[in-house]
Each structure stands twice: as structure tokens, then as C-alpha cells.
From TrEMBL:
Stretches that traverse the bilayer: 35-56, 62-81, 110-129
Residues at which heme binds: 83
Family as reported in the entry's similarity comment: Belongs to the cytochrome b560 family.
Cofactor note: The heme is bound between the two transmembrane subunits.
UniProt topology in membrane: Multi-pass membrane protein
Keyword set, alphabetical order: Heme, Iron, Membrane, Metal-binding, Transmembrane, Transmembrane helix
Biological role: Membrane-anchoring subunit of succinate dehydrogenase (SDH).
Name of this chain's protein: Succinate dehydrogenase cytochrome b556 subunit
One annotated Gene Ontology cellular component of this protein: membrane
Leader sequence residues: none
Organism from which the protein derives: Sinorhizobium terangae
UniProt subunit comment: Part of an enzyme complex containing four subunits: a flavoprotein, an iron-sulfur protein, plus two membrane-anchoring proteins, SdhC and SdhD. The complex can form homotrimers.
Length: 131
């Protein structure tokens, strides 16, 4: 059997589809899930340093306090919050709600806005409590 419409691909892929908010949030949800594995290693490293003694803990705390360390921790915080909100979005779907196109798009947009806002709020509160 030949492809009658030669201009159309037999199997559409990401290069063919126009990115829409729900598709992008699905991809980002998967990426943040993978990133959380590596971020959890950082949490375990910090806990091990705390149990290993003051000198090692001070060194790890210094490392996390550098601008690169803070950037990594900020990214981990965002990934954690974003993945949590994406999980809540999926839970709503599991309950049988939110399948309407306009509502699903609003939830996808709310996920990104909420994750950025909550991450900033967490870091602002963290700095206010610290000093």
C-alpha cells in the first residue's frame, strides 16, 4: 500500500504538533520527576553531612550557600513544587474532573504560575526567617 498523501508523515511526532499548554506541562512534569531523583541525592548528602560531624557539615553548607549551590537548590525547590502541583492536576483527572479542553488548559497554565509563585514565596519566607 502506498502513501497517497505524500506530504503527510505516516507517524506524526513532536516536530509536527504545535505545543499546547497541556502537552508542555506533561513533558515538564516528566522532566521534573527525573530531576527530583538527583535533587533527593543532594538532600541525602546534606543529611549525611549533618550526621558526619561539624567540619563536613560546614563544608556542605558552604557549598550549598554559593551562588551555584543556591541556584541548584532553587531549581530543586521549583521542580518539587511543580511536580507536586502536576500531581494534584493528575489527581483531579483521576477523580474524573477537568477533562474539558478549556479547563485542562487553565489547569496547565495555573500549574506553571502556581509553581513559580510558590517557589518564590518559599524562598522569600526562607530568607526572612533566616535573618
Amino acid at each position: 500500500m502506498t502513501n497517497v498523501t505524500r506530504s503527510r508523515p505516516l507517524s506524526p511526532h513532536l516536530q509536527i504538533y504545535k505545543p499546547i499548554p497541556t502537552m508542555v506541562m506533561s513533558i515538564v512534569h516528566r522532566i521534573t520527576g527525573g530531576a527530583l531523583y538527583f535533587g533527593t541525592i543532594l538532600v541525602a548528602w546534606w543529611l549525611i553531612a549533618a550526621a558526619s560531624g561539624a567540619a563536613y557539615y560546614d563544608w556542605v553548607s558552604w557549598l550549598f550557600g554559593t551562588w551555584i549551590g543556591k541556584l541548584v537548590l532553587f531549581g530543586y525547590t521549583w521542580a518539587l513544587v511543580h511536580h507536586m502541583l502536576g500531581g494534584i492536576r493528575h489527581f483531579v483527572w483521576d477523580l474524573g474532573y477537568g477533562y474539558e479542553k478549556h479547563f485542562a488548559t487553565k489547569m496547565a497554565k495555573a500549574t506553571i504560575i502556581g509553581s513559580v509563585s510558590l517557589t518564590l514565596l518559599i524562598w522569600v519566607i526562607g530568607y526572612l526567617v533566616r535573618y
